[in-house]
UniProtKB/TrEMBL annotation:
<keyword id="KW-0808">Transferase</keyword>
<keyword id="KW-0238">DNA-binding</keyword>
<dbReference type="GO" id="GO:0008170">
    <property type="term" value="F:N-methyltransferase activity"/>
</dbReference>
<dbReference type="GO" id="GO:0003677">
    <property type="term" value="F:DNA binding"/>
</dbReference>
<dbReference type="InterPro" id="IPR002941">
    <property type="entry name" value="DNA_methylase_N4/N6"/>
</dbReference>
<dbReference type="Pfam" id="PF01555">
    <property type="entry name" value="N6_N4_Mtase"/>
</dbReference>
<keyword id="KW-0680">Restriction system</keyword>
<feature type="domain" description="DNA methylase N-4/N-6">
    <location>
        <begin position="16"/>
        <end position="102"/>
    </location>
</feature>
<dbReference type="GO" id="GO:0015667">
    <property type="term" value="F:site-specific DNA-methyltransferase (cytosine-N4-specific) activity"/>
</dbReference>
<dbReference type="GO" id="GO:0009307">
    <property type="term" value="P:DNA restriction-modification system"/>
</dbReference>
<keyword id="KW-0489">Methyltransferase</keyword>
<protein>
    <recommendedName>
        <fullName>Methyltransferase</fullName>
        <ecNumber>2.1.1.-</ecNumber>
    </recommendedName>
</protein>
<dbReference type="InterPro" id="IPR017985">
    <property type="entry name" value="MeTrfase_CN4_CS"/>
</dbReference>
<dbReference type="InterPro" id="IPR029063">
    <property type="entry name" value="SAM-dependent_MTases_sf"/>
</dbReference>
<comment type="similarity">
    <text>Belongs to the N(4)/N(6)-methyltransferase family. N(4) subfamily.</text>
</comment>
<dbReference type="GO" id="GO:0032259">
    <property type="term" value="P:methylation"/>
</dbReference>
<dbReference type="InterPro" id="IPR001091">
    <property type="entry name" value="RM_Methyltransferase"/>
</dbReference>
Length: 454
């Protein structure tokens, strides 16, 4: 390899990097599985509600202020904001994940309307079942892509189909209640499958340890009632703050929010962007996208979801696409960073020739930072002065080339206008890869990047 690679020290002011064990304050997404509403959807990329609470307390966020999460995901930031009476804005580009987030933020649903739907489903179940089974050529594969068919016993999937049909035909008086039932059915999907559908991978060939088929209708009834109880609990615990705050959830890309969020209107940003670790958010939600009919195949997923998300996986890039060069505005503003990225991309392009999988990590890297530049610019624009943006993220080492995402984001932010950045290491990660010489030996970490706008 002929070119020299920039050293991390080019960017890093050692004094800005603090290492602390903050796990007791920051927790993990598993914490969310124990608390009302947060636990409705196990999003593998989510952060702990405790981290959000801790950050709000540290920043002294008060009622009436506005917090913005440009990568809202399952709405962890917004749910905490709402329970504390703080206004929030959430942006999410994945249409299915957005639907889940929206439903999780509706706490003012009518219990009576939910019970009416549950009763309607129970009393129409047999007749709907009869109707379906007596249809000429009733085949589950006519209703669902193969992946879904392989994840359930025939009986369970037939029952899920009945639930879906009754749901789709039902005339809800309000979207709020419709959204609630949408989440109940979605939450059932992984729990009652007979295959290994745990996150992040779906392995239809692999049976679950406890793979006996569960009764979909019984589980639906249990879950719907448990989730109604959750609404009561969260309302009880946030009773002083009820209706005291406003929440704007937007389905769009954080790359351009100019139609939705005014300049200097946000008091705080707390977010966790996709990491540069080849995690394809659209693919990981395949089961749900296929079940609900958002998509029928890979191409649909690409058009409906993959293309809308910022680049963070090799499945989003193509060598035939000329867009995977550094944007000129980005390189004009941040020459130091873009030189580093170009240099690392060159190294990855060379490694690709000799490594297994021939992964397009070089293009993924360029696409990731082109997108991140635009998103950081939007974050800067919407923030008021004397505020902070907190980014929780991990670094990565595709083909062993270390990409210090935290430092690069801090440097880009300062070129855009942020006055300074600091980094706190939250935890080390990925050490198990050290044991496998096929992977890499770079020690990875998760950090918090704090950007100051003065
Ligand atoms: C790390 S996850 C955030 C999880 C969230 N903190 C939670 O607790 O659920 C990143 C999210 O960014 C979303 N995303 C990816 N590209 C986006 C874009 N261009 N604009 C907005 N959201 C995007 C992904 O769909 C994913 O839900």
């Amino acid at each position: 390899m002929s070119r020299e690679f920039y050293q991390l020290s080019l960017f890093t002011d050692e004094s800005t990097q603090k290492e602390e064990n903050k796990s007791e304050y920051w927790g993990t997404f598993k914490d969310n599985l124990r608390v009302p509403v947060h636990r409705w959807f196990t999003y593998p990329a989510g952060f702990s509600y405790k981290a959000v609470e801790y950050a709000f307390q540290q920043f002294n966020l008060k009622k009436g202020m506005v917090v913005y999460d440009p990568f809202m995901g399952s709405a962890t930031t917004n749910i905490v904001a709402k329970s504390q009476g703080i206004n929030s804005i959430g942006v999410e580009a994945h249409p299915f994940v957005y639907e889940i987030a929206k439903a999780k933020m509706e706490w003012n649903i009518q219990e009576k309307a939910i019970i009416t739907f549950i009763n309607h489903l129970n009393s129409n179940f047999e007749s709907k079942s009869h109707q379906l089974r007596t249809r000429e050529e009733f085949l589950l594969s006519n209703y669902f892509p193969e992946l879904v068919v392989r994840c359930y016993s025939e009986k369970t999937l037939t029952n899920l189909l009945i639930i879906r049909e009754v749901f789709n035909e039902y005339k809800f008086e309000n979207q709020k209640e419709r959204g609630f039932i949408f989440v109940v059915i979605t939450a059932l999907l992984r729990g009652i499958s007979t295959a290994a559908t745990g996150w992040p991978y779906i392995a239809p060939k692999k049976a679950k340890v406890t793979s006996e088929g569960k009764d979909a209708i019984l589980e639906f009834n249990k879950l719907a009632r448990a989730m109604l109880q959750d609404i009561k609990e969260i309302q009880y615990f946030s009773k002083q703050n009820q209706n005291a705050s406003e929440h704007d959830l937007i389905l769009c890309s954080a790359k351009n929010v100019s139609h939705y969020i005014h300049n200097h209107s946000v008091d705080y940003i707390f977010t966790s962007p996709p990491y540069l670790n080849n995690f394809d958010y659209s693919d990981r939600t395949r089961l749900e996208l296929y079940f609900w009919g958002f998509a029928k195949n890979w191409r649909d997923i690409t058009n409906q979801v993959r293309k809308k998300l910022m680049t963070s996986a090799t499945t989003q890039v193509s060598r035939n696409d000329p867009q995977y060069v550094i944007d000129s505005e980005f390189s004009d503003h941040c020459p130091k960073v873009t030189d580093f990225i170009n240099s690392a991309a060159f190294q990855l392009q060379e490694l690709r020739k000799i490594k297994a999988g021939k992964k397009n990590y070089d293009l993924m890297l360029i696409g990731y930072f082109n997108d991140m530049y635009k998103i950081l610019k939007e974050c800067y624009r919407v923030l008021k002065y004397n505020t902070q943006a907190i980014f929780i993220l991990g670094d990565s080492a595709p083909y062993g080339v270390h990409i210090p995402t935290d430092v690069l984001i801090g440097e880009i932010a300062c070129s855009i206008g942020f006055s300074s950045y600091s980094i706190e290491v939250l935890r080390k990660r990925g050490d198990k890869w050290k044991a496998n010489p096929q992977r890499h030996t770079v020690s990875l970490k998760e950090s918090m990047v704090i950007l100051e706008k003065k």
